[in-house]
Amino acid sequence: MNILPILKLRYFRQLYYFAQLKRHQWLEEKDLVRIQEKKLRSLINHVYHNVPYYRDLFDSVNVRAEDIKHLSDLKKIPFLTKEIVRKNYPEKIVANGIDITKCHTSSTTGSSGVPLRISSGAKDHDFRYALALFIWFELGLRLKDKFVTIQHKGYQTDNNILFRKTGIFNWEN
User: Does the structure show a pLDDT above 80 at 166?
Assistant: First the structure.
């Protein structure tokens, strides 16, 4: 399998997310709220139609996806707890059509009791990566700076392949 097209897609997606973070950084509060509410409506519509747990939850409290339009409408939805996730994972909590075997699955340490399993897709990973880069740049990191990351060995990524080959950031894992 040729991984290059996949890596290119991921890099472009990360670059897009990074640019989006930079563009939104200094927006007025009203503009940020407008963006958040647009994304909220999209998310609510998606989970209602694709995640069995949320469809059941919304139906049980007589809330339709269209009822959630503003951030203040979130109070209409009961809180999601770790126990609910544990009980419904993955059958009812993972969106229909998602192949869980293609997701990155990790778990919390369980310091407050039982560990919680968490799955995320490539887009989620790419956004978190772009967010980390955004934060590092805002803290003053430059492209040729050297730094070391210390992380759990289970969290290795394809992202640092490009950096190692180009000398950008001089990654040391």
Answer: no
